[in-house]
């Protein structure tokens, strides 16, 4: 069966050019994954999966988020999406990246820092 878990990736940086490039990389990477690996050709990751870059009101900090697959733990989709998310995070390790894990059931919500 499985329990629905949402894993939201949060990307944060003070350098606007770097976070802009990282967001564009995420759009390209996850766009390819959604089209080629998961066969969702009409899913627009640029507007439906990856948020715009959000500027802070002070100190010039920028953040964007990447929606997870929101499927159930143990499902093939969830396992595969985790693999691709972890790969993307490893390639972008220089930034501040967190994954918030939350959902239904008895499992506690938590945030993992990469």
Brief write-up:
With 114 residues, the chain is α+β, with helices and mostly antiparallel strands.
Number of H- or I-type helical stretches? 3
Outline type? globular
| Beta fraction | 15-25%
Overall number of strands: 5
Arrangement of strands in the largest sheet = 2-3-1-4-5
Counting helices, strands and paired strands, the structural category is: alpha+beta
Give helix and strand order, one letter per element, not per position: EHHEEHEE
Mean pLDDT: 91
Low-pLDDT stretches are none
The helix fraction, in percent, is: 25-40%
> Biggest sheet: strands, sense, closure?
5 strands, antiparallel
Distance between the termini: 29 Å
Rg over CA atoms, rounded to whole Å, is 14 Å
Strand and helix layout:
Blueprint: E1 5-13, H1 16-37, H2 45-48, E2 54-55, E3 62-66, H3 76-91, E4 96-103, E5 110-113
Antiparallel strand pairs: 1-3, 1-4, 2-3, 4-5
Notable characteristics:
single chain, 114 residues, alpha+beta, 3 helices, 5 strands
Describe the structure.
The chain is an alpha+beta fold and 114 residues long. It has 3 helices and 5 strands. The chain has helices at 16-37, 45-48, 76-91; strands at 5-13, 54-55, 62-66, 96-103, 110-113. It has a 5-stranded antiparallel beta sheet, with helices on one face. A hairpin with a 6-residue loop joins strand 4 and strand 5. The protein starts with a strand and ends with a strand.
